[in-house]
Amino acid sequence: MRGDRPAFATNQDLDPTRLRQAFGIFPTGVVAVAAEVDEALVGLAASSFTSVSLDPPLVSFSVAATSRTWPDLRRCDHLGVTVLADHQGLVCRRLAGPVAERFDDVAVSVTENGAVTVDGGLARFDCTVHAEVEAGDHVLVLLRLHAVEHVSASGEEGSSPLVFHRSGFGRLAVT
Fold first, then answer.
1. Rounded distance, CA 45 to CA 91, Å?
2. Each residue of 17-33: pLDDT tens digit?
């Protein structure tokens, strides 16, 4: 039984604005991807982070092919990835803002390999670039994990992820 709904209309002229609105319906977490490059902190925010594989341990995120930050990050030996907590909306906005101001008033930790993680996040990963795949107007980046640290689920402040939904930030309601 097909119900009372009209047939799903196909169109080949998918308007980017309509696509962005439709994609925005799906909530995602947000991560910071960062490293120390030539003694400066370089990073970006990504809402396309996902786990990929346990063996080998891989995660991924997507970045715009036009990004001016990714060419600097991709040449680093190690990258830090931080799962941002629900109280870090301003940090996320800062990481998406002007390059020279991205780490102003943002507390970070730097590993001996140059991976940068944001303090106060829910999980931190030390990674290397495993592969890059051209994907339309983005690059899909596969990262190999070398170390992980995360907060426990015991309910301490900030124990929920920052959620990006319909171009704004929210938090999860656990029932």
1. 9
2. 877 777 777 777 899 99
The encoded tokens of residue 92 equal 């996320």
pLDDT tens digit sequence for 107-160: 999 999 999 999 999 999 999 999 999 999 999 999 999 999 987 655 455 478
Tell me the two tokens of residue 174: 């656990």
Query: DSSP string covering 117-150, please?
Result: EETT-SEEEEEEEEEEEEETTEEEEEEEEEEEEE
Cα–Cα dist 158/53, whole Å: 26
Residue whose tokens read 């319909």? 166
- pLDDT score recorded for residue 6: 63
Cβ contacts of 46 within 8 Å, gap of 6 or more: 30, 31, 32, 33, 61, 62, 63
- Cis peptide leading into residue 27 (ω within 30°): no
What kind and span of H or E run contains 110?
A: strand 108-110
> Taking the CA of residue 23 as centre, how many other CA atoms within 13 Å lie in the half-sphere pointing to its CB?
10
Distance of alpha carbon 93 from alpha carbon 121, whole angstroms: 15
Structural domains for the chain: 28-162 (2.30.110.10)
Residue with tokens 């060419």: 71
pLDDT at 86 over 70: yes
The tokens describing 89, both together, are 């909306």
pLDDT value of position 14: 76
